[in-house]
Amino acid sequence: MYGTSITNYSDSGAVVFAALVLGLLSFVFAVGYYVLSALFLGKIFQKAGVQGQWRAWVPIYNFMVFAKLGDLSPWVPLIGFGAAVILAPVGLGWLGSVLIVVSTAMAAWRVGLKLQKEPVWVVLYLFLSIVWLGINAFDKSRWNPNIAPASWADNGFFADRTVWQGVPVQPTAGPVAPAAGYQPPAGYQPPAGYQPPAGYQPPAGYQPPAAPPTYQPPAYQPPAGYQPPAGYQPPAAPPTYQPPAYQPPAAAPSVTPPPVAPPTQDPPVAPGDGQQRP
Question: Residue ranges of region Disordered (predicted)?
Answer without folding.
Answer: 175-278
